[in-house]
Amino acid sequence: MNETHFCVRDLSLAYGKKRIIETLNIDIPIGHITALIGRNGSGKSTLLKAMARLIQPQGGAVYLDGKAIHEMPTREVSRRLAILPQHTQSPEGMTVEELVWHGRFPHQSVWGGRRKEDRQIVQWAMEMTGVAEWADRPLSSLSGGQRQRAWIAMALAQKTPLLLLDEPTTYLDLAYQIDLLDLLKRLNETEGITVVMVLHDINQAARYAHRLIALQDGKVVAQGTPSSVITPQTIESVFGIQAKVIADPVTGHPMCIPLTTATREDTQQPMALGQ
Question: What GO terms are given for molecular function (predicted)?
């Protein structure tokens, strides 16, 4: 396998006796944003956890630069890959800066203190995510969107080329969702960070990701550019709904418009002359 390559080969995952993923094969393009989409229970979050070495595969492997990630030392993985899980917890009273410092742990020796380089990276991570002004504030005093930025700052402080996020916009209002996705896009464009994230909003995935992977029952139904994946046929196959797909009037990316029972009936009615 080529250097700086991230891929899944014949991967099978299960919780107990329940098989979630079956012999899955995907490639993650380096330097791009990839979004995993699909219904609840389709295996998106399970796959992401396996890619971050949080779940042991029953078969196959996740490969990072030609090495099976589950056979790599923890510290080495932490220097190459950072993950922001769906549910985050921090000790009571922890400040934003203290949280961000946790991102430097994989790079510090057992006996080493806080080096000048570490301080510079922590400051850079806070400035990139816009949380520097809240450095001394407890995380508990921040809004949901602000806390999410702080956690991303911690992941950035790891200085990894790969960033994995599990439903990063969940529980955020629309303004914070766009704010966060704009931040991830900027990090990808300016820092070259490869982003893999689970998203529920199909239109946000189509707008922000270079590549989409649609999952159903632990299998890949479609993968490729947003235009090739977001089609009426794929939407019906993956989500079990009928939809119209039009061009986003702002970006030109595909936009999915689900059809309700009423709208389906309306679209099937012949239009009278003059209408």
Answer: ATP binding
